[in-house]
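#structure-requests
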Amino acid sequence: LKRKAAGEPLQHLLGTTEFFRREFLTDARALIPRPETEELVEMVLNRIPAHPVRVLDMGTGSGIIGITLALELKDRAREVVLADISPKALAVARQNMTGNHLSARVSCVQADALGEPPAFLGKFDMIVSNPPYITTAEMAELPHSVKDFEPALALHGGDDGLDFYRAVAENFTRLIASGGYLCFEFGLGQHVAVSMILQEYGYTDIALRKDLRGVIRAARGTKK
């Protein structure tokens, strides 16, 4: 009760949170999964090729996006790679991966979305990402329960909140096979800017998806 009164999120007190009808380990090492991210997963699941796919979850945090895709796709997911720059976040992702008995099809890799991808990653049918998108100005206005208890590394997206979108498109597009997809989640009102970034890097057939409140939360672009 003292920890809750001090503003600590309930998910940290419980040690778990629900996402896509499943329970996942959650603590201060990674961002707490939000319900809006389920829309990103749904967008990916609605456009899966007939052949088994290889998926990269870039900036995976607790691993919930990639792990959920592996569980939902079953044998249609040939391999899912969970990538993050934070060793602490990857430790949470590994615990969620092993807890769901996915070590045979899911792996964890340390990688920086703002830098060159490791050469060994290879090609993917799709890259999915919920990167940091809070602007510098918004960081100062975040609620106490977020600002003081969740990692800033998973929140701050630069002055305009779009640093990671530009970097992923710039650095990781070449890892996507022709006809594959790049899928992003983003913040309120960022859909136009993210769509323009996708178009700038040659993606076509841009699709958008709203959350349950009617807010556009996810975008998918197809690589030529």
